[in-house]
Automatic annotation (TrEMBL):
Signal peptide: none annotated. The keyword Mitochondrion does not apply. Keywords: Coiled coil, Developmental protein, Differentiation, Flowering. Residues 26-95, 132-166 form a coiled coil. This is FRIGIDA-like protein. Transmembrane segments: none annotated. InterPro entries: Frigida. One of its GO terms (biological process) is flower development. PANTHER family: A_TM021B04.7 PROTEIN, FRIGIDA-LIKE PROTEIN 3-RELATED. Belongs to the Frigida family.
Length: 310
């Protein structure tokens, strides 16, 4: 009986030992489980942190991608600007070469222009020298004409003095001499009143002088027939009127419609016939024709010539 109880006790003790072992094992397992739970919680925390870091990293990646896109855009812009710069550089080089060519052409044209200016200047200088020589010759001719005029005036004055002396010696008529002197002075006044330094006519009013004259028609006719400066002649004694100053004087005389004395008309008729004969040889000079027509009109000589002749 005791053996049974001892055996039962041993068995119970053994079971009790087994329970303790199991309990220790369970506690160990529990500790392991708790440790695993802690590790799991730690891992979850780490996972959350990792996810947070992942989100941050994803944001950084997105930002990087955005910056990468911007950088690629800038790179494309740079490449485009680089291409444009190279194109502009080529255009600039081309224009620079073109400019150099134009500069060379300009320099060439400038040299040609200088040569042309030099040639033109020399030509104009030669023409100027020729004109100056012509002017000097003309001045010299005018001086000769003035000297000849002065000489003729002196001769006329000597003739008048000689005539006056003869009249005094032979009992001549002083009044006639005074009239001759007055007529000569009037002719001289008319001749010099419209002659300038070159011997050309001046457009001045001489109507008062003509009106104040005792016989303006006679004076004008004498100026034409016996001018201080001789008129050009055809042949030996043929007088022609191709001087504008005489035409001007006839036109002024025509405006006052002077009274023509018979003796003056006879002298004018002789002059008109002489002019008509000269015009048969040459009708190209319009001044001769105009002078002839003015003589006919002023001195009333139309009836002495046929209409066909006029």
């Amino acid at each position: 009986m005791l053996r049974k109880e001892l055996a039962s006790l041993k068995k119970s003790f053994a079971e009790c030992n087994g329970q303790q072992v199991e309990e220790r094992r369970l506690r160990s397992i529990k500790r392991d489980i708790e440790k695993c739970c802690e590790e799991l919680e730690n891992m979850e925390t780490q996972v959350k942190e990792f996810e947070t870091e992942k989100n941050i990293l994803d944001g950084q990646v997105n930002e990087f991608e955005s910056k990468k896109g911007e950088l690629e855009g800038l790179l494309r812009d740079f490449e485009s600007e680089k291409t444009n710069f190279e194109r502009r550089q080529k255009e600039f080089e081309s224009k620079e070469k073109e400019f150099e060519i134009r500069v060379m052409e300009f320099q060439s044209k400038e040299e040609e222009f200088k040569v042309q200016v030099k040639v033109l200047f020399e030509a104009k200088e030669e023409k100027f020298e020729v004109k100056m020589q012509q002017f000097e010759n003309q001045v010299e001719d005018n001086l000769k004409s003035v000297k000849a005029l002065e000489l003729k005036e002196n001769q006329i004055e000597v003739q008048i003095k000689d005539l006056k002396s003869k009249l005094n010696n032979f009992g001549g008529q002083p009044k006639e001499l005074e009239l001759t002197e007055k007529q000569h002075d009037e002719e001289k006044e008319f001749d010099t009143s419209y002659m300038d330094d070159d011997g050309a006519s001046e457009e001045i009013d001489i109507l008062d002088n003509l009106r104040e004259s005792s016989d303006p028609a006679k004076i004008v006719l004498d100026i034409i027939l016996n001018p201080i400066i001789p008129l050009p002649k055809k042949g030996d004694k043929a007088v022609i009127i191709d001087d504008e100053s005489r035409i001007y004087l006839l036109e002024k005389l025509m405006t006052i419609s002077p009274n023509i004395k018979p003796c003056v008309r006879d002298e004018a008729l002789k002059l008109a016939r002489e002019l008509k004969a000269n015009m048969k040889e040459n009708t190209e000079n319009y001044l001769e024709v105009l002078g002839f027509l003015l003589i006919l009109s002023i001195y009333g000589l139309h009836t002495y010539f046929d209409e066909d002749e006029v």
